[in-house]
Amino acid sequence: MIKVKNILCIGAGYVGGPTMAVMALKCPEYNFHIVDINQDRIDAWNSNDLPIFEPGLDEVVQQARGRNLKFSTDVEQGVKDADMIFVSVNTPTKTFGLGAGEAADLQYWEKTARMIAEVSETSKIVVEKSTLPVRTAEAMSRILKSNSKNLEFEVLSNPEFLAEGTAIQDLLLPDRVLIGSEQTTNGLAACQELVNIYQEWVDKDKVLTANIWSAELSKLVANAFLAQRVSSINSISALCEATEANVDEVSIAIGADTRIGSKFLKSSVGFGGSCFKKDILNLVYIAQSYGLQEVADYWRQVIIMNDYQQERFVLKMIKNMFNTLAGKKILILGFAFKANTGDTRESPAIFVAKKLLEEQASIVICDPKAIDSAKHDLKDLEGDISYELDPYEASKDCHAIAVMTEWDCFKDLDYQSMHNNMVKPAFLFDGRNILNHQKVHDIGFNVYPIGKDSLTH
Ligand SMILES: NC(=O)c1ccc[n+]([C@@H]2O[C@H](COP(=O)([O-])OP(=O)(O)OC[C@H]3O[C@@H](n4cnc5c(N)ncnc54)[C@H](O)[C@@H]3O)[C@@H](O)[C@H]2O)c1
Which of 27, 191, 275, 398 is an active site residue? Predict the structure, then answer.
């Protein structure tokens, strides 16, 4: 039986960093060590300028860092010292060979497992925090247990359900925590060690335990269901535009049904983020590999609909701006995949920016937190791209504004001043349906929301 005191997390990213910081805050009697191979990231975690923007994160890190939370690049020493190891490395979609474009690329995971087996001198509990395909734990367990040192390794699956932008709140007050384990005496004892940690601040009835495969699958299914709601309402937004129905009114009407519920029914230019597409593709691949083609096709359609929604958005811009964007300057207002994060992975803004450049438009990108990431995402593209933190400066000489992120600060901008700065007729495409469309139309904009009538002059 392994008794836990020293906890290591491998991977100091959007999940590893906030998750361990909150655990350290709430569990002062345990020691937490977060390691990463990326020196810049670790340096930033040790500074006052953290590597990720997340509301409330600075305060949590400040309280725990130096007390029972430390960050370093000393992965092997960290492994040696730990009783419990969370593995929270990235699990990107495979780009080569069997399953390319769908399956998860598990080479980093396997290397991590082999390294843990190699350097360990004491028994450990290894916790999958990364989102992984069903039955990965089995492979990890076999690699770890094939070590010749007679050490005990128990593998748990503890998928993370936090959402970027609300990560700290989600971690402090989770809807549930899920822990999967082998249903053996040692597996259940390891599970109890992790249950004890969470129960320091999470209600007992919210800490769910399951078999390890159910835990792994539940994470993929949770993301698939969330993305499916977005694609479902986005499919209806196209129908609303064709029929003069209003997608916000439809959302309110159906969301008021308690069987359906109101969350994740906001129509938009589409979902982004590092997880939804990757995890659904993973689910599709798993279904296919078990010969369940209809199941795979069903879930793949969620992604097809999301691609369609982004394409539709750009086509609407081209069509309404007299079928040509060449030489026209367009303000991309927001680049993060959603509000309250600087993360731009799979952001619809990347797709829209690429398409606008293909049409030979000039683009200017404005985002309160994501300009550095945007520069990185677009660095290989040719065309006229500029970056500007000040939205008023950014609007100068633009023909159109495309709202790509639902930042609150965009709702209260002085659109009259921006309109004054722009070439007329001025166009506004609201990819997040966050503006008061009548008000901006009254200012003089030609307004194109999602799933509603356009307001033109
Ligand atoms: N981002 C989210 O909102 C979210 C939510 C729930 C689950 N997840 C899952 O959590 C996992 C991590 O996601 P993320 O967004 O934190 O990724 P990330 O890319 O932000 O962080 C991963 C970190 O792991 C580090 N790393 C990679 N290989 C390593 C190694 N061998 N040794 C040490 N460090 C290594 C990388 O340098 C990077 O800093 C993924 O599986 C993801 O699907 C993400």
Answer: 275
91 in contact with ligand 1, CB cutoff 6 A: yes
Instruction: Assess whether the C-beta atom of 88 lies below 6 angstroms from ligand 1.
Output: yes
Q: Which regions of the chain carry the CATH code 3.40.50.720?
A: 6-202, 309-448
Instruction: Please work out whether the CB of residue 108 comes within 6 Å of at least one atom of ligand 1.
Output: yes
Tell me the C-alpha distance between 139 and 126, whole Å.
13
CA of 396 to the centre of ligand 1 (A): 39
Residue 15 CA to ligand 1 centre (angstroms): 6
> Measured from the CB, is residue 11 less than 6 Å from ligand 1?
yes
pLDDT tens digit sequence for 125-136: 999 999 988 888
**In which element (H, E) is residue 316 found?**
helix 293-320
Cα-to-centroid distance, 131 and ligand 1 (Å): 9
Q: Using alpha carbons, list the distances in angstroms from residue 49 to 45, 58, 263, 285, 368.
A: 7, 9, 33, 39, 15
54 ligand 1 Cβ < 6 A: no
Using alpha carbons, list the distances in angstroms from residue 310 to 51, 163, 231, 295, 400. Answer: 29, 22, 11, 24, 17
Residue type, 38: N
Spacing, Cα 266 to ligand 1 middle (Å): 27
| pLDDT, position 106 | 87
Q: Tell me the CATH number of domain 309-448, given options 3.40.50.720, 1.10.10.60, 2.60.120.280, 2.40.30.130.
A: 3.40.50.720
Decide: 216 in ligand 1 pocket, CB within 6 A.
Answer: no
**Ligand 1 pocket: which of 22, 275, 279 to mutate (most atoms within 8 A of CB):** 275
As beta bridge partners, residue 177 has 207
Cis peptide before 159 (omega within 30 of 0): no
- What is the CATH code for 220-307? 1.10.1040.10
Question: Which of 3.10.450.50, 3.40.50.720, 3.40.50.300, 3.30.465.10 would CATH assign to domain 6-202?
Answer: 3.40.50.720
Chain region(s) in the chain for CATH 1.10.1040.10: 220-307
Looking from the CA of residue 275, the nearest atom of ligand 1 is 43
Q: How many degrees, rounded to 5, is the angle at CA 173 between CA 172 and CA 176? A: 120
Please give the number of the atom of ligand 1 that sits closest to the Cα of 111.
31
User: Does 191 participate in catalysis according to the annotation?
Assistant: no
> pLDDT tens across 196-222, in order?
999 999 999 999 999 999 999 999 999
Name the DSSP letter for residue 92.
Answer: P
Instruction: Over range 354-382, report the average pLDDT.
Output: 97
In 3D space, the residue among 340, 353, 309, 333 whose CA is nearest the CA of residue 415 turns out to be: 333
